[in-house]
């Protein structure tokens, strides 16, 4: 009773102030200078009284934040005043580069849900250094920061506060025609005081971006129709490459290529967008972070190409992370029959239609075509994916998908295809406590050579299904996952499945105890998970049990320790070092156990570090594995970091032991908010390769860039060059 009364007394001022924010139009121009001297800012309603999301979601924010809004015929304007009781402490900034990491920077964020579905939206962020970030929101709280669009901001730092003005064109985001209200929330990441706060309270168990807790913002008159929304982004590029071959080769192969192409964004309706790309060039995309490969199965690398990242919740979120019916990185990868090497194949065009149709329906249609190269035995491939999604039961939705890969051309395999059809139900309750999904996907493909059916349907087991259900509360997260993948579910020319013919179940439990009165500790608690994998005959092939304890400190440091007990049954011969050593025999089983741990230091410090590792059993031997990253920020102009991974695998004779070292120093320099330079070196002893990648980016106009990229691969010992490439790419964003 006393606790309930205390809660009411604490929140009574906020409950009395919890009124809809009303936004009036401006009667004069808003000059973006961060000074907030315009009369409209003096008259505008104020969104204030921010409540902590972390570390104590029952307390007001330590630093006050005030937000005001207005609009005119073309823009939505947001101003914010972020008061600062500790100006002697420096702001935390990773760099001046656009699209910063949210949790590594002091910043203010606008969360915008124009359709009121509490699932999809947009976000716009700004730091005290004037660095901008924007993103598309999906799944109710997730943010894809790779989404780019035009908008402007200005920041002013004063002795007791920092303040900003943001001008967001109505053409930059989608909303229903004649909209008179949005769902919105505002967040402030006061990292130097290790606090996250929201205008409308978001419980500590959820991210500040959770749209389930957004509130209504009403406009005094319907927002204007943004009108025709057509953007054209042409590019020109030049690429020089030199393939030197192995040492002792008589000569390499030098090529020089020039390219021209464009992207286009067309607003078909205020809520439906058409994206086009013709002869796209992805040479400016950063290289993948290498890893030491100790897996028996294919390793998953995320998509980095801009065209395929936008609207990823429609096209890339079906299934599970290791069981995806559509994986866009398959597009543009082909097998060169003349060299027996996997090579990149040019993408001729791509088209993507996505967005809202009506109140509860979303649609997505993606089509791409790759080139035919008969001299290399490469058949052009057409990839199509169609999605239709219906919102039901509040924030949940049900989706139908179709995927088709079809060979195009005159080569013998041009008529081969892979097709998939599936249904998925995604659960999200209004209070965010329950979430999950249920899916079924079936594959259809043309018979391959040697797969004459002869009365046997090769596709009889070509399906997968799975489900996950998660309950999240202040102190408890409980998740159940299971899936089945058929033996004939062969989709790795369009999707990603790292193994087939198995059942998997995975229960997970994590408990968190918060200690508000403790000056050192924020929270602590145990966790455990158990994964069981059985083949179709019911035989246990994998068992992984982890149990441990997490600690989270007020300094932003965190750590944990745990114990593991694994069992692995080999259904094919395998060398645990992945180095062509003697293989363990098929049919053998191995029970192992050991310990693991991790620790991350205070990320607010200029010098910070993170380390994790395990030591214990590994198949029929032992492995000691550590990964570590050390970073020094010379903020706000960048950082120097070193990533390293070490594995010491010790197997009994006659099996091979191995020591692998992967070292990756990286230098990021942001000379200004428009000029960025990054250099990465990755030395990998397992692949006997050293990679150098250096990239200069000049954003000379909004969303318009000049890239200069140089990449070279070396033999680690002698540093003899294997191959090198230099790329120049220039793009410009036109609003038509």
TrEMBL record:
Entry-linked SUPFAM superfamilies? CBD9-like (SSF49344)
Q: Name one GO molecular function term.
A: carbohydrate binding
Chain ranges of the DUF5916 domain: 231-646
Q: Report if keyword Signal is assigned.
A: yes
- Entries under Pfam families matching the protein: CBM9_1, DUF5916
Q: Which domain of life is it from?
A: Bacteria
**Position of the signal peptide:** 1-18
An example Gene Ontology biological process = carbohydrate catabolic process
Q: CDD domains given for it? A: CBM9_like_2
This protein's UniProt keywords: Signal
Protein name from the UniProt record: Carbohydrate binding family 9 domain-containing protein
Origin organism lineage: Bacteria, Pseudomonadati, Bacteroidota, Cytophagia, Cytophagales
């Amino acid at each position: 009773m006393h606790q309930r009364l205390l809660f009411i007394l604490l929140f009574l001022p906020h409950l009395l102030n919890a009124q809809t924010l009303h936004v009036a139009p401006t009667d004069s121009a808003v000059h973006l200078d961060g000074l907030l001297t315009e009369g409209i800012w003096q008259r505008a309603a104020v969104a204030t009284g921010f409540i902590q999301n972390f570390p104590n979601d029952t307390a007001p924010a330590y630093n006050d934040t005030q937000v005001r809004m207005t609009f005119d015929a073309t823009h939505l304007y947001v101003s914010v005043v972020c008061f600062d009781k500790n100006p002697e402490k420096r702001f935390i900034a990773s760099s001046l580069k656009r699209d910063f990491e949210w949790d590594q920077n002091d910043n203010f964020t606008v969360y915008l849900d124009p359709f009121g579905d509490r699932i999809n939206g947009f976000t716009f962020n700004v730091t005290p250094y004037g660095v901008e970030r924007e993103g598309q929101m999906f799944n109710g709280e997730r943010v894809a920061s790779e989404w780019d669009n035009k908008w402007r901001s200005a920041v002013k730092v004063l002795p007791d506060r920092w303040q900003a003005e943001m001008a967001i064109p109505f053409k930059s985001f989608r909303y229903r025609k004649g909209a008179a209200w949005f769902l919105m929330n505002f967040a402030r990441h006061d990292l130097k005081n290790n606090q996250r706060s929201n205008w409308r309270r978001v419980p500590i168990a959820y991210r500040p971006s959770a749209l389930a807790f957004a509130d209504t913002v009403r406009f005094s008159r319907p927002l204007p129709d943004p009108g025709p929304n057509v953007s054209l982004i042409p590019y020109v590029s030049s690429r020089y490459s030199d393939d030197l071959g192995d040492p002792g080769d008589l000569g390499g192969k030098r090529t020089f290529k020039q390219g021209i192409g464009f992207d286009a964004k067309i607003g078909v309706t205020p809520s439906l967008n058409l994206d086009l790309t013709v002869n796209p060039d992805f040479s400016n995309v950063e290289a993948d972070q290498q890893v030491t490969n100790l897996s028996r199965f294919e390793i998953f690398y995320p998509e980095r190409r801009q065209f395929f990242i936008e609207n990823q919740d429609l096209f890339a979120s079906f299934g599970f992370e290791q069981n995806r019916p559509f994986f866009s990185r398959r597009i543009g990868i082909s097998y060169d029959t003349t060299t027996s090497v996997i090579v990149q194949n040019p993408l001729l065009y791509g088209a993507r239609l996505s967005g809202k149709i009506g109140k509860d329906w979303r649609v997505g249609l993606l089509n791409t075509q790759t080139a035919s190269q008969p001299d290399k035995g490469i058949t052009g491939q057409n990839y199509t994916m169609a999605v239709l999604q219906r919102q039901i039961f509040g924030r949940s939705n049900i989706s139908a998908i179709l995927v088709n890969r079809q060979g195009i051309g005159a080569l013998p395999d041009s008529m081969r295809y892979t097709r998939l059809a599936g249904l998925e139900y995604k659960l999200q309750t209004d209070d965010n406590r329950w979430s999950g999904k249920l899916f079924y996907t079936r594959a259809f493909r043309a018979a391959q050579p040697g797969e004459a059916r002869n009365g046997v349907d090769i596709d009889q087991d070509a399906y997968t299904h799975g489900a996950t259900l998660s309950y999240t509360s202040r102190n408890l997260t409980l998740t159940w996952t299971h899936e089945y993948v058929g033996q004939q579910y062969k989709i790795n020319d369009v999707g990603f499945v790292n193994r087939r013919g198995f059942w998997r179940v995975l229960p997970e439990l994590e408990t968190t105890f918060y200690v508000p009165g403790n000056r050192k500790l924020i929270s602590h608690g145990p966790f455990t998970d158990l994964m069981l994998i059985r083949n179709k005959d019911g035989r246990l092939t994998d068992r992984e049990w982890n149990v441990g304890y997490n600690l989270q400190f007020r300094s932003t440091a965190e750590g944990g320790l745990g114990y593991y007990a694994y069992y692995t049954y080999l259904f094919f011969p395998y060398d645990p070092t992945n180095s062509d050593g003697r293989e363990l025999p098929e049919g053998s089983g191995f029970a192992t156990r050991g310990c693991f741990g991790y620790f991350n230091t205070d990320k607010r410090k200029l010098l910070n570090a993170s380390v994790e590792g395990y030591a214990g059993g590994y198949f029929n031997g032992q492995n000691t594995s550590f990964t570590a990253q050390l970073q020094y920020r010379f903020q706000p102009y960048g950082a120097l970091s070193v990533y390293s991974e070490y594995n010491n695998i010790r197997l009994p004779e006659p099996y091979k032991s191995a020591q692998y070292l992967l070292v990756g120093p990286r230098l990021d320099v942001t000379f200004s908010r428009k000029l960025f330079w990054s250099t990465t070196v990755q030395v990998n002893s397992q692949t006997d390769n050293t990679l150098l990648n250096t990239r200069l980016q000049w954003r000379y106009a909004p969303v318009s860039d000049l890239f200069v990229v140089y990449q070279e691969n070396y033999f680690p010992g002698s540093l003899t060059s294997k191959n090198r490439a230099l790329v120049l790419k220039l793009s410009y964003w036109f609003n038509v």
